[in-house]
Amino acid sequence: MPLFLTASGLYSKHTMAQFLSLLPQVKTGLTACIITTADVQYKNKSKHAVRTKDLFYAIGFAKVDYVDLDTDPANLLLNYDVVHINGGNPLYLLARVKDSGAHEILAFLLSEGKLVSGQSAGAAIFGSTIQHADILHPEWNETLLTEFSGLGVLRAAILPHSNRYRTASYETVVKKAMEEIPDPILFLGDGEYIILP
After folding, report:
1. Strands (E), 87-172
2. How far is Cα 157 from Cα 51, in angstroms, rounded to an integer?
């Protein structure tokens, strides 16, 4: 199964319909986990984590768990049919995904045909770099990350919520990011998604 990336989650009817098209017709017995690591403050209490869990149950999943790579071993991801990576701080998330070894497990899951989805920061880490996040929001770099290579599934930097950067001050910073990053930037607006086979 492919990689499903979205800026603002699975909440719109159209986005959910596309997500559902990637799942088997019969969802009885399917399991999912939601990685909550990127939301450093709220984790599994974040409104997006709770809402996504409710959505998964509503479409027929038998079991939906939260996984936090700060406290849970990354190999837990192997126990699920679908892995959804929630949003939050992309710099912190990338550091934890790499430090925990989850990047290797995610690559394995994709190679085995499991469905992996990423929302916001959870989408951004699948690009070639997240250096643009450091340029746009240097205050997010609490871990003092200096190596910004993403998971590299897509040969572009992924900028979720790109429609929110359409102000004069942000456009200047986005242009700076485009000049400093060697790869192109893929603009992923709210309500948009990408499916990578």
Report:
1. 115-119, 157-160
2. 27
Structural domain boundaries in the chain: 3-196
pTM: 0.94
Tokens of 84: 């959804």
Q: Is 161 exposed, middle or buried (0-12, 13-18, 19+ CB in 10 A)?
A: middle
> Residue type at 186?
L
Residue with tokens 């959910």: 16
- Which amino acid does the sequence have at 118? G
| CATH class assigned to 3-196 | alpha beta
Count CB neighbours of 156 within 10 A.
16
Q: How far, in Å, CA of 46 to CA of 137, rounded?
A: 21
pLDDT over threshold 90, residue 167: no
Is the pLDDT at 49 greater than 80, yes or no?
yes
Q: Where are the beta strands (DSSP E) in 36-183?
A: 63-67, 82-85, 115-119, 157-160
How high is the mean pLDDT of the chain? 94
Alpha-carbon gap, residue 101 to 103, rounded angstroms: 5
